[in-house]
């Protein structure tokens, strides 16, 4: 599964949540959902705004974490 590192990057750069909203122009709801890993995907334009504001790459924002839980439907 893909996990985002937005909260970690904001902490490392000492950027407050309300500041990233102002820097990017991304809605509070969208950023909240990204920050809390409650999204199924992200628009390229949103990703571009985050990378520009945080001076980072998409690779910095996301990490692949293997999902050790096998899918049940594969074994039924």
> What ranges have pLDDT less than 50 throughout 5 or more consecutive residues?
none
- CATH structural fold name: 434 Repressor (Amino-terminal Domain)
> What CATH architecture would you give?
Orthogonal Bundle
Share in helix: 40-55%
Describe the global form. Answer: globular
Pfam families: HTH_26
Protein name: Helix-turn-helix transcriptional regulator
Domain HTH cro/C1-type: 22-61
Organism: Candidatus Scatenecus faecavium
Molecular structure report:
By secondary structure, the chain is mostly helical. The chain has a single domain, classed as lambda repressor-like DNA-binding domains (434 Repressor (Amino-terminal Domain)). 51% of the residues lie in helices and 8% in strands. The protein is built from 5 helices and 2 strands, in the order E-H-H-H-H-H-E. A two-stranded antiparallel ribbon has the order 1-2. The longest helix is centred in the middle third of the chain and has 11 residues. The two termini are 22 Å apart. The mean pLDDT is 89. It comes from Candidatus Scatenecus faecavium. InterPro entries: Cro/C1-type_HTH (IPR001387), Lambda_DNA-bd_dom_sf (IPR010982). GO terms for molecular function: DNA binding. This is Helix-turn-helix transcriptional regulator. It holds the Pfam family HTH_26.
